[in-house]
Design a protein that fits this description.
The chain is an all-alpha fold and 71 residues long. Helix content is 76%, strand content 0%. It has 3 helices and no strands. The chain has helices at 5-32, 40-53, 55-66. Helix 1 (5-32) packs antiparallel against helix 3 (55-66). The chain is elongated, with a radius of gyration of 17 Å. The relative contact order is 0.20.
Length: 71
């Protein structure tokens, strides 16, 4: 049984919302736990890097979500 595009979009959206929520909690926990130096440049680079990294796995999920249905 193949999933239709509407079903894939629903599943993908739920996974994306839950995943991003958990990821943001992880990033915030690391930032406030004392593992990050109190240096502005280090914190800036940490947040820039953490803000971009999530997009790589999300790309594959989004490509899966929007691929056309097979005839």
């Amino acid at each position: 049984m193949r999933l239709g595009i509407r079903t894939r979009k629903l599943i993908g959206t739920i996974i994306l919302l839950i995943g991003l929520t958990l990821y943001s909690f992880l990033i915030m926990t690391i930032a406030v736990s004392g593992h990050l130096p109190e240096h502005g440049l280090v914190q800036f680079l940490y947040y820039i890097t953490a803000g971009v990294i999530w997009a790589f796995p999300a790309k594959y999920l989004i490509v899966w979500m929007v691929r056309p249905d097979e005839a």
